[in-house]
DNA sequence: CCAAAAGTGTTTTCCATACACCCATGG
DNA sequence: CCATGGGTGTATGGAAAACACTTTTGG
């Protein structure tokens, strides 16, 4: 195993797959493309592409993110490695090892990308049908991780524009967790955590309609939340599980290795009413 | 990017690297090999090897784990994907993308592997010198993850033999976190968390010497800890950071992409007194 | 004036901490 | 009988959940 030989191994293709999320219209939405080519033609799939010889997977992911979203500047967006998927049969054509990334965007991104031939669409996460390859599992893994990271990191601000109200931040939590939070307590918790958010010197802003204008905040310098902001009890280990949050789709299944054991509980939109 | 062509890309080698930890003699120890070949010859490195054409990275990691530890049965050991390292220059010879895994072993594993030519050794994590390639960073990432996961998962039992005492479990926490815990409170917390540990019907056991015999426990079915078992405040965000836990070595650096902003705080062994 | 959303205050409950203390064993 | 480690009990402080209440806007 120490003897390197460029031809001792079959060529592996290395790609990146992107699970790009945003919160809009009170729903968690995902950026998906529709495949044209044959393996899974017509199916929805995660955006992605090859890692070029001179770039890291991280660089490739950010490049693809720019191409697929059509955004000019993606340097400020949250992009984070999820994990790597390497099952030998995950692509029927050849051996493809894919490094999956999760990206988080604030609400107002361009609805569809323009860089590529395959058009990308924002679709609500709940009620998605099966995806191409093992992308359903990748997406489910990404979604689970986001929900978990909201508990103990300041990640939620990545879903918000540069300046936001605490109400918007709370909506991010409520949308991702699928549970209502007590506003006074949420407020206290966020403000008590040093470096989570910081007030903007400017004045207050209307919320778009009736209601008292809300103060504006910026994301702070902190990345971790100590102590964490806990939700009820998502990982119901075994019995007696009154499921709450939308356990949305369970497309290309496979059992997660770490296993939260809490599988889907279809209570969102029972059948798929997607493109409306 | 949709047009597949087996020759459109330069061949990537895909490998696995293993960060294998154990707790022995009150210290966190790591399994390392000493390189014979030239790039970084004589340097310590993580065990690892190529992913074979027909296997997944996970399978390759478990195979390497068996080879390097010399253990006959590694099926019960905790093995978990850490992340993938893909910087173009991480191996001077060619393009190597490496999927890193973290493995946790109970105390009494064979001290060194026998499968491979390169002999593996257990070495205390604190006070290590620089490692080959970017393995120093990989190891640091793995170590950080372990410390964090002890807080909100039942991972600690992976460091323990099939049957263990609460004192042993507590020692795992204290060793990994580098902080003393209050025994009565630790005990209550662990026993109050359903599914963390379960008592063994058999009788009590001596602790090896003086002291009251301790009850034996087994790992339970739960994977997550709700609520978590928090330590003091590891990620000091920016200013005014009275560092506590040993920020051990910071070998082959590079700035982490996700960045906890809290970089190493050399207070363990001030300078590097490595190979002693 | 009413609805809706922001923001403040208060009470209650629970949990983590910090101890004091008893039990069982080896020397 | 004393040191050592296992195990139990208990008081106290602080934070989180629950909820009543005021403020400020638009219709």
Topology order of chain A in helix (H) and strand (E) letters: EEEEHEEEHHHEE
Mean of residue pLDDT of chain A? 81
Distance between the termini of chain A: 54 Å
Largest interface, chains and sizes: A-B, 60 and 62 residues
* CATH superfamily grouping of the domain at 13-151 in chain A: Nucleoside Triphosphate Pyrophosphohydrolase
Largest sheet of chain A: 7 strands, mixed
CATH class of the domain at 13-151 in chain A: Alpha Beta
Instruction: Give start-end ranges of low-pLDDT stretches of chain A.
Output: 235-276
How many beta-strand runs of chain A?
Answer: 9
Indicate the radius of gyration of chain A in whole angstroms. Answer: 20 Å
Q: What proportion of the residues of chain A is helical, as a percent range?
A: 10-25%
Strand portion of chain A, in percent?
15-25%
Number of helices of chain A: 4
CATH fold title of the domain at 13-151 in chain A: Nucleoside Triphosphate Pyrophosphohydrolase
Return the CATH architecture of the domain at 13-151 in chain A. Answer: Alpha-Beta Complex
So what's the overall shape of chain A?
elongated
Oligomer: homodimer
Structural class of chain A: alpha+beta
Domain Nudix hydrolase (chains A, B): 11-146
Region (Disordered) (chains A, B): 226-276
Keywords (chains A, B): Hydrolase
GO molecular function (chains A, B): hydrolase activity
């Amino acid at each position: 195993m120490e003897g390197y030989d460029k031809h001792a191994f079959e060529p592996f293709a290395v790609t990146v797959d992107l699970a790009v999320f945003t919160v809009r219209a009170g729903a968690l939405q995902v950026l998906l493309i529709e495949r044209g080519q044959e393996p899974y033609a017509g199916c929805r799939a995660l955006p992605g592409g090859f890692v070029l010889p001179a770039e890291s997977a991280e660089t490739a992911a950010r490049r693809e993110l720019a191409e697929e979203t059509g955004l000019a500047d993606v340097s400020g967006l949250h992009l984070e490695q999820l994990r790597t998927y390497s099952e030998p049969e995950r692509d029927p054509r050849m051996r493809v090892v894919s490094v999956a990334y999760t990206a988080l965007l604030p609400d107002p991104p361009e609805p569809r990308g323009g860089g590529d031939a395959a058009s990308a669409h924002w679709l609500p996460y709940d009620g998605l049908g099966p995806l191409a390859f093992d992308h359903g599992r990748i997406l489910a893994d990404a979604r689970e991780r986001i929900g978990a990271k909201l508990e103990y990191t300041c990640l939620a601000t990545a879903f918000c524009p540069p300046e936001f109200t605490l109400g918007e931040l709370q909506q991010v939590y409520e949308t991702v967790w699928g549970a209502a939070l007590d506003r006074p307590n949420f407020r206290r918790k966020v403000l008590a955590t040093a470096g989570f958010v910081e007030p903007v010197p400017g004045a207050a802003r209307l919320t778009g309609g009736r209601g008292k204008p809300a103060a504006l905040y910026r994301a702070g310098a902190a990345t971790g939340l100590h102590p964490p902001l806990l939700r009820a009890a998502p990982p119901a280990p075994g019995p007696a599980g009154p499921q709450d949050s939308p356990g949305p789709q369970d497309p290309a299944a496979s059992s997660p290795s770490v296993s939260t054991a809490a599988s889907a509980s279809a209570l969102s939109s029972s059948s798929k009413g997607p493109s409306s």
